């Protein structure tokens, strides 16, 4: 699929073909990560990570791991 670069203010821009938009599930205001790899422009959507509230994090049982045995002191550690 071809797309043409055009001027957008002081920057350059290109349109993403509809088939790619549908395939990647892109929406307006999707954040994209742009990089150059082996001389090619690579554009990847940044998938949003859900942010939890304190109340959401505190719901349910807390998982407490067992104490870790790090062995005997090797230096001047205070036990």
From TrEMBL:
The UniProt record lists the SpoVT-AbrB domain at: 6-51
GO CC terms: toxin-antitoxin complex
**Single biological process term from Gene Ontology:** regulation of DNA-templated transcription
Q: Which domain of life is it from?
A: Bacteria
Gene3D superfamilies registered for this protein in UniProt: 2.10.260.10
Pfam families found in the cross-reference section: MazE_antitoxin (PF04014)
The protein's matches in SUPFAM superfamilies, at most eight in alphabetical order, are given as: AbrB/MazE/MraZ-like
Query: What InterPro entries does this protein's entry cite?
Result: Antitox_PemI-like (IPR039052), SpoVT-AbrB_dom (IPR007159), SpoVT-AbrB_sf (IPR037914)
Q: Name one GO molecular function term.
A: toxin sequestering activity
Q: Know the name of this protein? A: Cell growth regulatory protein
The organism is Gloeobacter violaceus (strain ATCC 29082 / PCC 7421)
């Amino acid at each position: 699929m071809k797309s043409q670069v055009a001027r957008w203010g002081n920057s350059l821009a290109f349109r993403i073909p509809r088939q790619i938009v549908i395939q990647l599930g892109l929406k307006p205001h999707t954040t994209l990560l742009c990089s150059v790899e082996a001389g090619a422009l690579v554009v990847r959507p940044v998938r949003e990570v859900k942010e939890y509230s304190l109340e959401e994090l505190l719901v349910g049982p807390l998982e407490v791991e067992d104490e870790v045995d790090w062995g005997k002191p090797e230096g001047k550690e205070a036990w």
